[in-house]
Amino acid sequence: MARKTFISYKYSEAWQTRDKIISALGVDARYYQGETSSSPNLTDRKTETIKHHLKSMIFDSSVTIVVISPNMKQSNWIDWEIEYSLKEVTRGDKTSRANGIVGVIQKDYYFGGYGWLLNSITNSDGCSSRNIDNSKLYDIIIKNRTNLKRPVYVCPTCQSVSSLDGSYMSLVTEDEFISNPNMYIENAFEKSKRINDFEITKTIKTQKNWWSAW
Questions:
Q1: Per-residue model confidence (pLDDT) at position 40
Q2: Each residue of 64-82: pLDDT tens digit?
Q3: Domains, the chain, with CATH or none
Q4: Residues 77 and 53 sit within 8 Å (Cβ to Cβ)
Q5: Percent of the chain with pLDDT over 90
Q6: Which of 109, 82, 116, 79 shows the shortest CA–CA distance to 16?
Q7: What DSSP designation does 123 have?
């Protein structure tokens, strides 16, 4: 079943990835609630005007796709969009529950691959695992990963969890997501239905000066 989706991304470096994701959705793109290449430019609008516009789009979605790009932390919107996606919001007689969230790691278009964020390590027990450079991620992403209250280890020896089911916010590569977007969207949606199984961080602790950093 198709889900209503919203894409959170840093426009200046990830708009092409946004377009690739929308294209990969195929006929299900009609359920996409976020911005497109034909959306009006809001960068010169007041912060509250932009927030109101974004809130309306997120409220009407059930899965938020976050493009993980090299300089995403320079955006003043992405972590706020994640926070809002995790809220339960009431408008009139309708209450939206927390969105499922999936992170799509952008490919390095100059050198290829995902080495700017990912590398493989071999643990002392001989198991190989994926290592993520958390310095490139917002705290609200980090804290909503490997956060299953009762983790099920795919390897009991090194206590590694499933990359998809062990975190509320899974991170998948652009190539993986584009090859089967519905699988990852559905995985995120299904986890949102059992959100109480996870230790969820919903709030951004640091306050920002709101200025345009798209």
A1: 54
A2: 999 999 999 999 899 999 9
A3: 5-197 (3.40.50.450)
A4: no
A5: 62
A6: 109
A7: -
CA distance 138 to 194: 23
Structure tokens belonging to residue 123: 């643990």
- Distance, CA of 7 to CA of 196 (rounded, Å): 24
Q: List the 100-105 sheet strands across, edge first.
A: 5-8, 63-68, 100-105, 169-173
Quick one: tokens of 91?
């408008």
Q: In the chain, what percentage of residues exceed pLDDT 70? A: 86
- Return the structure tokens found at 9: 């991304």
Q: What is the pLDDT at residue 209?
A: 45
Element (H, E) at 95: strand 94-96
- CA–CA dist 72, 66 (Å, integer): 10
Q: Which two tokens stand for residue 202?
A: 């919903």
DSSP for 25-83 reads TGGGGGGB-S--TTSPP-TTS-HHHHHHHHHHHHHT-SEEEEEE-TTGGG-SSHHHHHH
Q: How far is CA 75 from CA 7, 10, 49, 212, in A?
A: 14, 6, 17, 8
User: Cα-flanking dihedrals φ and ψ of residue 160, to 5°?
Assistant: -95, 145
Whether residue 35 contacts residue 94, with contact meaning beta carbons closer than 8 Å, is answered with no
Measured distance CA(192)–CA(64) in Å, rounded: 11
Angle at alpha carbon of residue 54, lines to 165 and 22, rounded to 5°: 60
Q: Which two tokens stand for residue 158?
A: 């090194």
The pLDDT of residue 211 is: 40
Reported confidence tier of residue 43, pLDDT bands at 50, 70, 90: low
Answer positive or negative: Cα dihedral of 115, 204, 76, 34.
positive
